[in-house]
Amino acid sequence: MKRALLCFVLAACGGKLPETRYYQLAMPATPAPSNSGVALVVDTLDTDNAYDDERIVYRLTPYRLDYYNYHRWSAPPGTLIGNFLEATFEASGRFLSVTREANPQAPVVLGGRVIALEEVDKSKTSWVGHAVVELRLTDAATGDVVWTQQFDESEPVTEQTPEGLARALSMALGRIAKNALPPIADHATQIAKANGDAKAAAAKGATASRSARLKQ
Length: 216
Prior knowledge:
- By secondary structure, the chain is of the alpha/beta class.
- The protein has one domain: Rossmann fold, CATH 3.40.50.10610.
- Helices cover about 40% and strands about 35% of the residues.
- β4 and β5 (about 65-75) form a beta hairpin.
- α2 (about 75-90) packs across α3 (about 160-215).
């Protein structure tokens, strides 16, 4: 309330409104080279209505949320976290390629939902960055969901500024990506192998059928 009131007073008194600032998540420095694994497509995540806003969300109580009017994410949260996951998984070296665009070589598509991305003020001197993300992996060929899991991580904000919050949320989301990586890579590999086996069986059956016709 005090933050919003200050902006109102400045405007009412003819003062200059604060400059709008934009923030992003810290991406991995250098992707690890990979000549193995399979391709992965990362879709833009859906976002719950309360957080589907470029304005940064903060909470003073469990029952209410507010928005910083002049401190905003550089992209909507669903896009922001999708880009973060793409960069993190590419840097892991576990995949042949990781893209945001459709890739016919990718056996699975990673999507999901942003349930919370916020600053939680536990007291005047204790803030945490809080992220809740539900990830969902689907078979690219059938659209069937093969894996889903919800992750909930918090990280103390050591520097009580929006930039400090972005740093804390980057760390929280980094743990989410680290925990999600093994099951995603395993399922992607399993589905790619199953698809390869199915194609090999189909090709073998077609060859046998042609040979049988030739013998007639």
